[in-house]
Amino acid sequence: MQQCRIIICLIMRKSQKREKILEVFKDGDLLTAHQVTERLPDIDRATIYRNIALYVEQGILREVNVQKNVSSYEINKEHDYHQHFICNNCNKIIPVDINPEDIKKIIPKFLVVKDFELNIKGLCKNCD
Ligand SMILES: [Zn+2]
Predict the structure, then answer these.
(1) How far is 103 from 107, CA to CA, in rounded Å?
(2) Which of 21, 66, 84, 104 has the fewest CB atoms in 10 Å of its CB?
(3) Fold classified for 17-75
(4) 75 backbone dihedrals φ, ψ, rounded to 5°
(5) What is the pTM of this model?
C-alpha cells in the first residue's frame, strides 16, 4: 500500500512538471529548449528536453527553425499558419499571418503542399 502511494505521488509530480513545461508556452512565446530550462530552473534539463520532444510528437508543440542549428518551439494551434519575421539587426522575431492558399498559388501545380515554414528576414520598426 505504502509503495503504491509513493508511485502515485511520483506520477503526480511527473505530470505536474509536464504541465509546467507546457505552461511556459501558453502566452504564445517562441522558445528554445534552453530558454525553457532558464524559465524552469527547478526542473532538470533532461526532463525538459524529453517532454518538449514528446509534445512535438503529439502535435501539441511545433518545432520552428528561426535560428541556425537551434530549434525553437511554440504552441501548435489548428488553423494558425503564422510564420516568422526575423530582424537582422536585433534578432527580434515577429509573427506574420500567412494564408496557406497564397503559398499554394506560388507552388507549381504538380506539387502537393503538406506543410511549410517561412523565415522572412529584414529590419523591424525599431531598427529600420
Ligand atoms: Zn530589430
Answers:
(1) 7
(2) 104
(3) Arc Repressor Mutant, subunit A (1.10.10)
(4) -60, 135
(5) 0.76
What's the gap in Å between 91 CA and the centre of ligand 1? 6
Interval between CA 25 and ligand 1 midpoint (Å) = 22
| Ligand 1 centroid from CA 93, angstroms | 8
First to last CA, the chain: 66
Give 43-56 as a DSSP string. Answer: S-HHHHHHHHHHHH
Q: Whose CA is closest to 24, among 13, 37, 11, 12?
A: 37
Q: How far apart are alpha carbons 24 and 52 in whole angstroms?
A: 11
Cα angle value 98/104/107 (rounded, 5°): 120
pLDDT in tens, 73-109: 999 988 888 999 999 999 999 999 988 889 889 999 9
How far is 17 from 58, CA to CA, in rounded Å?
A: 17
For residue 22, what is the DSSP state?
A: H
Quote the pLDDT of residue 68: 82
pLDDT digits (tens, 9 = 90+) for 48-67: 999 999 999 999 999 998 88
